[in-house]
Amino acid sequence: MKRLIVLGGGYGGMRILQRLFSGSLPDHIEVTLIDRLPFHCLKTEYYALAAGTISEQHIRVPFPNDPRLTIKYGEVTKLNLENKQVEMKNEEPLSYDYLIIGLGCEDKYHNVPGADVHTLSLQSVDQTREAYKALNNVPPNGVVGIVGAGLSGVEVASELRESRPDLTIKLFDRGDMILSMFSKKLSKYVQSWFTEHGVEVVNNSNITKVEPNMLYNHDEAIYCDAIVWTAGIQPNKIVRDLDIEKDNSGRLIVTDHHHLPGDERVFVCGDCASLPHPPSGQLAQAQGEQIVTVLQALWKGEPLEPLPQIKLKGVLGSLGKKHGFGLMGSTSITGRVPRLLKSGVLWRSKYQNG
């Protein structure tokens, strides 16, 4: 028997498991999933969980139930690629024949003093639970600061406005206009939505320091009852600590077949992989599909054929429960339609995958 270990039951890991157990797993392969949680979580909905507009049950999806799958709950502490072992906290190391690294990401604090200690994170479900508690315990008419006006920052700000209309919400962005990765038309639409709904957007900001209940923008102190950090991500520290080739963001360099150069049995999926597209759940799922194709070829002893270039369908974001925005190909869409589309994508992720 050969052992395949999947590190992380995120979007990529989940898609790989689903495809393997839909009839493409040879008899001589046993699969082990290592994760901290007993279920997959829809991370794209963490912003709503933190704001208190949905319950945690809403974002849980069970892992596949298959006798060929062993699930080991625990914390990975180190990857020993030379000895083909996964080291875990308070556990004996696990040996593998094939490995899929899908350990996800962490916040990137850009060396801002105090940011890692005095801000709330939405990168894990545990951190999001803490954020929910802190945000919903903010006193009436309190102030919440959100650092970073990318997709995550915009969604948590809009959802919090819907959940807590009493709050003063300040959204800090380094650029002239929020959502700088989108078209100007779309960015202006979202910024106008915030203006109309009483969310203060602080453009051209530069957060220089964070202290308890205090945010410093260009060294000017701003009091906040709670501070949420959504200003960038980086790969899991275990990946960053690996002594192998990485890109400028700390993500692992992979081949066109998603494995490490020189080791076709170690694959990297999701936020840990260096790819032409920005990290996303959609990208991780597409990677997962292709990784299963490569694994099937390896197990059959077939040569690896070139894989098609991954093409993403688009990006969707929400502004509360009734409005949204998105990019479908090169077309910007705003209003109720993208919000409905995102709800449909969420339904499909939860019920078809689960």
From TrEMBL:
InterPro entries: FAD/NAD-bd_sf, FAD/NAD-binding_dom, NADH-Q_oxidoreductase. Its cofactor is FAD. The keyword Oxidoreductase applies. Residues 3-288 form the FAD/NAD(P)-binding domain. One of its GO terms (biological process) is aerobic electron transport chain. Belongs to the NADH dehydrogenase family. This is FAD-dependent oxidoreductase. It comes from Lottiidibacillus patelloidae. The lineage of its organism: Bacteria, Bacillati, Bacillota, Bacilli, Bacillales.
